[in-house]
Amino acid sequence: MPNELILIITIIVEFSLTLVWYRLFGVKGLFALMAILTVLANIEVLILVRAFGMEQTLGNILFASTFLITDIISETSDKENAKKAANIGIAASITFVLISTSWLLYTPSVNDVAFPHIKAIFSGTPRVIIASLVAYAICQRLDVWLYHKIWHITTRRTGSGTARLYVRNNAATLISQLLNTIIFNVAAFAGTYDFMTLLSIIGAGYVIFIVTSLLDTPFLYIARRIGRRRYPKGSESV
After folding, report:
1. Domains identified in the chain, total number
2. pTM, entire model
3. In terms of residue numbers, what domain contains 50?
4. Does 117 reside within a domain?
5. pLDDT of amino acid 73
6. CA–CA gap between residue 136 and residue 140 (Å, rounded)
7. Of 47, 48, 137, 189, whose CB has the highest number of CB atoms within 10 Å?
């Protein structure tokens, strides 16, 4: 199966799973999913693939899913819970790097077959995680702030608090993801890849974020409908 098809299927599946978690467990479920996706993204981002004629890391779609989570929470709950979701992602990253680093301190048994592979994968994790933490902390907070700032503007101009969902969703995500892509890739991979490869990764990463931002909008509309039916604002204790 070509990488391009796998990426498209992955986007649909991961965004759909986000809706499933929200429908089943509400905002608390999204908090849990945020932690899971953040840890997985920090592992997956170590894998470099080529698709659509571009070099790209695999963590892009999972990270895009975390932005969908904060947008869903912003839209259906409130700004404080969206900030809390971002903080959970940061805490999950810190916890992951501490635990994964501790694995490398052990002396493996002579019968061990896994340690060399674990070491090869996770020995470079701290730099990637630190880069991810810096980019994530800045850009997730920026995304939440922009989302509500744009929401305020569209509400004032249209007189409706529900209008222009696609504007606040895409504008906030595209701006914050551009900054996220640059900060993360430069901090994580400068010196690891040559300049042209790094530039290709940044460009490909942002193209992926543009596509995922546009594709996640229908899922956000569905999430808002789910929230209205199952979790009216103020009905969830978080």
Report:
1. 1
2. 0.87
3. 3-230
4. yes
5. 95
6. 6
7. 189
